[in-house]
Structure formats: C-alpha cells, structure tokens
Amino acid sequence: MAVDEFFDKDFPVKVDAIEVENGPSIPSFYLLEQLIEKYKADNYEFNFIMGTDLIPNLHWWDEGPRLISETKFIIFERAGYD
Fold first, then answer.
1. 32 burial type by CB count under 10 A (0-12 exposed, 13-18 middle, 19+ buried)
2. How far apart (Å, rounded) are the C-alpha atoms in residues 82 and 17?
3. pLDDT reported for residue 13
4. What mean pLDDT do residues 11-23 have?
5. CATH 3.40.50.150 is right for the domain spanning 2-76
6. Mean pLDDT of the region 45-74
7. pLDDT value for 71
8. Dihedral sign, Cα of residue 51, residue 53, residue 56, residue 60
9. What is the DSSP string of 33-68?
10. What's the chain's average pLDDT?
11. CB 52 within 8 A of CB 38
C-alpha cells in the first residue's frame, strides 16, 4: 500500500510477498538472494535502500559482510548520522 501511494504506477518499484511468506523476520541478505533467484530470468536489478543510521551496525547483521560486499546500496541521510 505504501509503494502504491508513494510511487507512480510506472516507477520501477515493486512489492513481493517473500517477506510475508517467510514469517515475521527474514535476514536481508537471504531476502535479496531469494529475490534474485526468483527474478533472475527477468533481468531485474536489486538495490538495498537504507538510512545512514543503520550503517554503523550493518556488519553485525546476519551475513552483514556479504551483504556489504555483494549488494548495491542506496543510502538516505538521516538526521544526526553522517
């Protein structure tokens, strides 16, 4: 619903039910792996969008170092975080 309200229908942002289907929590790295596998034939490109407030602890996330090295990021500045 948030994507539909924020983005124009032609904007290339889509919602997938993978997170809903995998229970209350799925580590980000594994989510991205599943998305890539599911959509690889369609040649989609995936980027991880996050705020600067999450960067200091990203290496502690499940598979954080792999997420950092294998993922393209879009970073939004959050007040109080460089």
1. buried
2. 33
3. 77
4. 83
5. no
6. 94
7. 94
8. negative
9. HHHHHHHGGGT---EEEEEGGGGGGGGGSTTHHHHH
10. 89
11. no
